[in-house]
Amino acid sequence: MPQYEYIDLPSLMSAHGTVRLPGSKSISNRVLLLAALSEGVTVVRDLLKSDDTDRMLEALATLGVGVESLGDNAYRITGCAGDIPNKEARLFLGNAGTAFRPLTAALALSGGGYELSGVARMHERPIGDLVVALCQLGADIRYLGNEGFPPLKISPAQLAGDTAQVRGDVSSQFLTGLLMALPLLDRTVKVEVVGELISKPYIEITLAMMARFGVVVQRDGWHSFTVAAGSRYVSPQEIYVEGDASSASYFLAAGAIGGGTVRVEGVGRDSVQGDIRFAEELEKMGAHITMGPNWMEASGPANGRLKAIELDCNHIPDAAMTLAVAALFAEGTTSLRNIASWRVKETDRITAMATELRKVGATVEEGADYIRITPPIQIKHAAIDTYDDHRMAMCFSLAAFGGAGVRINDPKCVAKTFPDYFTEFAKVTQAVPVIAIDGPSASGKGTVAQRVADALGMHYLDSGALYRLLGLAAQRHGVALDDEAGLAALAGKVDIRFEKGETWLDGEMVGDELRTEEAGSAASKVASLPQVRAALLNKQRAFRQSPGLVADGRDMASVVFPDAVLKVFLTASAEARAERRYKQLKEKGMGANIAALLQDIQARDERDMQRSVAPLQQAQGAGLLDTTPLNIEQAVEEVLTRYRALS
Question: Which pLDDT tens digit goes with each residue over 138-160?
Fold first, then answer.
């Protein structure tokens, strides 16, 4: 299995702020193609910068259309007035359905010879219904692979016929591509839709954009569309691309889940995009929504909890994916139906969504055209696979509000529509704060961290105790301390809790046996094993819960919580640490030798600093706190002073 890059999103506590949306993918590629087919020069502003638009721009340039970047997401397109300059070309269109389908139609009716191909997934996305409709008008199209799927070879043909039929229940992009290409024919042509037309709002976008370029389509409801003879595209000279309404859904949902208010700019009440109706559905779940002509805002319900809905999603097919993840935070079972088009997108989105929702603990029922989601009592941390699908990656970022954070595999797939998504998401979300206190053995960091947590009303994580507990569990289960694989497997199974100053292992309270030198030595050995540290990483991060966490250990600031708001490296001289440990053991009635303790501390320091995995060191950005001359109260107050100075 290939190893992808990933991004770890921490446990999120709230969301508020403002996001300026990138341009709509659907509008961007429609506008580019219409500008290319128009008479005159069009300056396109606020164009989406993404993989899909890059493929369209490359294709237009290959076809001989004048394409000039003006900087700042603006392009000057010199139209060809319906006469594509290069009559032969090979085009690679990646996984860009918004480029592949419309270009197929336009080139099939242009009288040239072309080959169109894409990535493997593009070759699994059906195009047969569009090809059939084009052939009804005389086009000559041949499949170079599987029947009904790309890649395609288009040959010059004697174009004829005044009626084409296209299925409406697979992809609205078939009808979109056909309609945009019809003005290339010098006659009146009617397109009849067979069956129910899905994703109707995307056809509304197509009709609105065609009208901006001078072609008004006559229509009979959703049953037929007619382009009159003599229709020609004429440049509007300058056109601005709206912000992407589908992308707005993630931030509106973040505002609803994280309290808000989150404001998105670039799309609003006056939008031509159907996905702005996502806001209406989110409002039905309890969110508070306000809108202006070019902006929308969302905040959470008054009672802090969304409610489940049942919804026919034909009007918001892409944005409905966001509702599926928002359902994790709703009371009851959310049912989304009429989403069969999900199965022929960048991936089979119904199966992918069901699979990943189950990873975080949801109960999911899926069918041919529906999905039902019942949220878990507690959302679990999971590594989310994204299937090279930008919307899977962006939707599941919302799962980070569940209390355990989330890992998104292959996050770069968002480049298809929103390359800076995770940067913008971080700007409007606030992670559960973490104070990370690292330091050598017996430096007092555990006592200081516990008291700081108590003073601030935060949760506490004694990471050293995790390794001691694993060492203890290994003894109880007969796992050797050098059995790395066995220890890693055990780490994934044990139940560890810290409650009211007490430590629990598999439902049993454990105490002083964790503080023996034998337990400390075992912990040091166990902690040096890479597989063990990896296995315990998610357990450690799961302690990050609202209103905050104070964590102590050896690598809290460097590995486990690198985004901690305060990082402290707490230390003391080896002699001071040996004396403190001696007094601690004596107070508990346990035998101790101060010389032996000093020798053991020095040996452990050396071992911890030399280990290959997460060696003991002062993390970047961590402030040094030498407690040799300080008592516990003074050390605690110093940490609290540093934390309060941040606000």
Answer: 999 999 999 999 999 999 988 99
Name the 3-class secondary structure at 419.
coil
**Are 31 and 241 within 8 A, CB to CB?**
yes
At 611, the pLDDT band (50, 70, 90 cuts) reads low
Exposure of 509 by Cβ count < 10 A (0-12 exposed, 13-18 middle, 19+ buried)? Answer: exposed
318 among known catalytic residues: yes
Distance, in Å, from the CA atom of 310 to the CA atom of 316, rounded to the nearest integer, reads: 14
Rounded to two decimals, what is the model's pTM? Answer: 0.78
- pLDDT for position 304: 77
Cα–Cα distance, 394 to 386 (Å, whole number): 9
Q: Which residues, in sequence order, are CB contacts of 533 under 8 Å at separation 6+? A: 527, 559, 613, 614
Give the mean model confidence (pLDDT) for residues 309-317.
93
Q: Residues of 467-477 as b/e, b for ≥16 C-beta within 10 angstroms? A: bbbbbbbbeee
Strands of 39-98, DSSP E: 41-45, 66-71, 74-78, 88-92
- Amino acid, single-letter form, for residue 114: Y
Decide: helix, strand or coil at residue 477.
Answer: helix
- Who wins on pLDDT, 304 or 485? 485
Strands 508-510 vs 502-505: parallel, antiparallel or unpaired = antiparallel
Q: What is the pLDDT of residues 421-453, one digit of tens each?
A: 999 999 999 999 999 999 887 788 889 999 999
Asked whether the beta carbons of 353 and 342 are under 8 A apart, the reply is yes
Q: Is the peptide bond before 293 cis (omega within 30 degrees of 0)?
A: no
Domains within the chain, CATH numbers bracketed: 6-21+242-431 (3.65.10.10), 25-240 (3.65.10.10), 434-644 (3.40.50.300)
Whose tokens are 């508990």? That residue is 588
> Distance of CA 179 to CAs 110, 128, 383, 413, 444, Å?
14, 16, 42, 30, 73
Q: Which of 51, 244, 318, 552 does the annotation list as catalytic? A: 318
Confirm if 481 and 474 have CB atoms less than 8 A apart: yes
Spatial separation of the C-alpha atoms in residues 578 and 94, rounded to whole Å:
64
Q: Is 261 helix (H, G, I), strand (E, B) or coil?
A: strand
pLDDT tens column, 458-468: 999 988 788 88
How far apart, in Å, are the Cα atoms of 27 and each of 53, 189, 526? 10, 24, 56
3 state SS of 3: coil
- DSSP string for residues in 532-574: HHHHHHHHHHTT--TT-EEEEESSIIIII-TT-SEEEEEE--H
> How distant is the alpha carbon of residue 571 from its chain centre?
39
